[in-house]
Design goal:
two-stranded antiparallel sheet, 11 helices, 57% helix, globular
Length: 209
């Protein structure tokens, strides 16, 4: 199996590329989606309530309140990230084991903070999505629940694109048309099939760490 990691700062086009890959029947582990699913679990909400009671209105988590709390306090942000990251790691490990059982030749992980928080050794190759800051901002501000303050706060906790490009094996520019971006990711996938595959034990070891 080849494990491909896709990342990029908010609004650079990761979701669009991953939607395209899903249509090609390539398994995608969508970290943002998985985190949303975690926030729906009572057991997870109970853990968060213990650490951030002021983010709740009775038994309901108010995500806007939680965002304000953690983005204004680095220590609390690290605490929340540690809680979620630990749970997400378990889900990703179980997911990739399932892909091995299904004998998938290539899988993709969509990870917003791949270089900032993840273990890069999990991946055979990494891809960074990039676009102009103007287009990035316009895309994000069209999303429900987003404003300029939230956009700037999220960007502050992500590496700059220049850094991500330096670390990545491939870069896709998503502001030069969808067709070109799709062609680029198809070329990358073809290149990945030529890579010598690691053993399952080698890969799974990194997903356990």
């Amino acid at each position: 199996m080849i494990v491909l990691g896709i990342t990029g700062t908010v609004g650079t086009g990761k979701s669009e590329i991953c939607k395209f890959l899903k249509k090609k029947r390539i398994p995608i582990f969508d970290s943002d989606y998985e985190v949303k699913q975690l926030y729906k679990k009572k057991s997870v909400l109970n853990i968060i309530r213990q650490k951030f009671p002021q983010a709740f209105n009775k038994n309901t988590l108010i995500k806007e309140n939680l965002s304000k709390i953690v983005f204004n306090n680095q220590r609390k942000l690290f605490l929340l990230e540690r809680i979620i990251h630990c749970l997400l790691k378990k889900r990703s490990y179980l997911w990739i084991r399932e892909q091995y059982r299904r004998r998938k030749k290539i899988v993709v992980f969509d990870v917003p903070l791949l270089f900032e928080k993840d273990n890069v050794k999990k991946y055979d190759k990494t891809v960074v999505l990039s676009c102009s800051e103007t287009i990035q901002k316009n895309r994000v501000l069209k999303r429900k629940g987003w404003n300029e303050e939230r956009f700037l706060q999220v960007k502050k906790h992500q590496f700059k694109e220049k850094q991500k490009k330096k670390f990545a094996d491939f870069v896709i520019y998503s502001d030069r048309g969808k067709r070109l971006a799709y062609n680029n990711i198809c070329t990358i996938i073809k290149n990945c099939y030529r890579i010598k595959m690691r053993s399952s034990n080698n890969i799974l070891l990194y997903f356990q760490k």
